[in-house]
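This protein record is not my work; I was only asked to verify it. Would you go through it and say whether the fold makes sense for this chain? Here is the record exactly as it was handed to me.
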Amino acid sequence: MGGKAAGTPPPARSVGARWGWERAGRLSPAPARAMPAGNGTGTSGRPAPAAPEQEVPGERPLFSAGTYELLALLVATIGMLGLCNNLLVLVLYYKFKRLRTPTNLFLVNISLSDLLVSVFGVSLTFMSCLRSRWVWDAAGCVWDGFSSSLFGIVSIMTLTALAYERYIRVVHAKVIDFSWSWRAITYIWLYSLAWTGAPLLGWNRYTLEIHGLGCSVDWKSKDPNDTSFVLLFFLGCLVAPVGIMAYCYGHILHAVRMLRCVEDFQTVQVIKLLRYEKKVAKMCFLMISTFLICWMPYAVVSLLITYGYSNLVTPTVAIIPSFFAKSSTAYNPVIYIFMSRKFRRCLLQLLCFRLMRFQRTMRETPATGSDKPIRPIVLSQKAGDRPKKKVTFSSSSVIFIITSDDAEQIEDSSKHNETKVNAIQVKPLQG
């Protein structure tokens, strides 16, 4: 007949065209085209042979079943630690007024972003690990890439603002207030939204990563539009923040060394101030170092993919930095509690209060005779009239000792004669 047979299958399309990995972000299979009607050759009733099944991104398991189970356990642990630790920081900040400082507001902002990563980002990866493949649709992939990028940028920019706050406080002797902190946090979120919103508007896009368990911006694309975004993204969200933090902490160390060399300033107040600033600077530096250690491997792998070395990045090589970066959400609260005395004391106070209330509920009985409820004891003395020896009193199971060595003078504003009193610390000892 000279024409093509009606049953000849159409040429196989690429995987990207078949599964819709275009900029529209469709992850569902492209609809099959209807076969043309017969042309009288007698082949109209014969079904066309099916095209060979091609590999679909995210469908074929890239790891063994045991590896997926291990990854699921690992990401679940990261998510639970990140959720509990960061939620604890938010509760402490809410319940204790002495923690509500402009500096701690930045720590709360980091904890909030890490908490959101633990809730949204980790959960999608965990479900995919259980199913041994990416189980979400295009919207889920876009949300995973957008949220992970957004909260990661918020964290590193907040650390940058924290370093700058330390810099102007130590080097320039300026004290910031809450309005400054709130403005900085607002700019941080707007800056992060600008970078993570660009792929939603066509400047690069969010796509499935090599390991098939999460999404991010398209590092592999060679389109000039996409590569320009990747280059500026690294400059604006990694190189510039790290450079600012290095500059700030370099000047902080120089200022502290200069103060130590001035003998006229070696008073008790200045020494205490230096110790405090040094401790806070150590805490912030440790937070920054931990964050960079967690995220640098992921950044290196992404750059390798961007600049044509994707053959070196196997799914195994890609999954390790990705999970290591997610683990950064669980570290910062631990640093706060171990490095900050205020956070430690507030945590102990919160735990002891809960324990005492539980014990009081369990032992609640009517008070009769000598079994009377213990009331708080207030010692009020005039200035200079300090106890000359230790005074003890006991309850049913605990012996308390009051010493005058730990006394701290405070002002009793409730008295008309403004008498100074000694605030005596009460220490429980095992009886």
